Amino acid sequence: MAGARRVVMFPFPFRSHIAPMLQLAELLRRRGLAITIIHTTFNAPDAARHPELTFVPMHECLPDGVTDPGADLVEQMLALNAACEAPFREALRWVVRRGQVGRWREVACVVVDGQWYAALTAAAEVGVAALALRTDSAATLHCMLSYSCLFSAGYLPIKEESCDEVLPPVEPLRGRDLIRVDGSDAERVREFIARVDNAMRTAAMGVVFNTFRAIEKPELHKIQRQLPTLAKFAIGPMHRLLGAPEEHGLHAPDRGCVAWLHALPPRSVLYVSLGSVARIDRQMFDEMALGLAGSGVPFLWVIRPGFVTGIADEAPSLPEPLTAVVTNGRGKVVTWAPQRDVLAHPAIGGFWTHCGWNSTLESICEGVPMIVQPCFGDQKVNARYVTHQWGVGQELGEVFDRDCVTEAVRRLMVGEEGAAIREKARRLKAKARQSVEDNGASTVAIDRLVQYMVSF
């Protein structure tokens, strides 16, 4: 019986990971499960926003520099796993004991973020069934699980002369689309992926995906062959299944930008946001700005603090041509935007995105075509699927300058190619909507997930 059991959840402490974990927590709570969130003190979720959930903070001790802005992302993830394994194990044991003595409902299972490979192992040691929540795409997990195969087949390491060749084990991905983090050591990236792979195969009982079958059915089938003993649940898009308001944990959103959109024609505005983590140098920033100014297309651009390297706490100055565009009202710059509301606005005709999975799903759900500028990690996988598998976006190209930016923006927003992409995006939006309707595939999957959880 769902109402008699408790599920423990452990989000990875990045904003793009915390939000989907809390979405899943609310979906499970609505189906009668009690929820406890174990969390790090680093980037802790805001418990006050979720009074119906129970929050248990850990007291991890992180090495110096791990939490610094601009820290090596791969080293950060490896260090977080090493530092949090023991505190998580103890926190989980504490929650289990409270259930055993009757102070709380008995623990059914634990759901940990898929990047917490150490926590998956720790949960098994405590004797609690563990499921992994993948906050990225099924295609990304398939890519990670394929790395050892890619090495044994001689596809890795990628050679410069073959980086544009499609790799058969992970088609449609090319060498350049594989997971990597610029500035991080390739061997350390491979080590992290190998640890995730091993934990999934040895310690997880199941895996939950924030995706839907209509968009990633082939990838889900491939994962079934790679992980045949794991239970699998595709329950996305979770934000649409939940119908919940957007979480804003990084910056307070400028809601004035939505009012600004009201005055603009349908499908006329390009929304530009490269997410909550990516950073670019001043030269690239200027080329983006000058390309936008030269396109003649109205735009809404999110420029958060720290977005441009070397400028930590204030917005960079805009090149003069862009300043004039903003002054005359054809463009607007904000430090943060209510992204779901923006993407749902009829004035939005395109989304220039880093292709983080949350942003990709949100764009798909609103039928907004994309210009892709992946920065690192799984974003490169997502970008390839957006452009070459689903056909709902286009690449900027390898050359990045103001002329290429202007051409890409105009091609998407006012060209015939953009119209064709927009029609594909409209059809994909319909499939996303169908997945979360009554008896839709994702609605059925979340009910199956609850039944599976209380079976332990």
From TrEMBL:
Keywords of the record: Transferase
InterPro entries reported for this sequence: UDP_glucos_trans
Pfam families, sorted: UDPGT
CDD domains: GT1_Gtf-like (cd03784)
GO molecular function terms attached to this record: quercetin 3-O-glucosyltransferase activity; quercetin 7-O-glucosyltransferase activity
Stored Gene3D superfamilies: Glycogen Phosphorylase B (3.40.50.2000)
Similarity comment text for this entry: Belongs to the UDP-glycosyltransferase family.
Protein name as catalogued: Glycosyltransferase
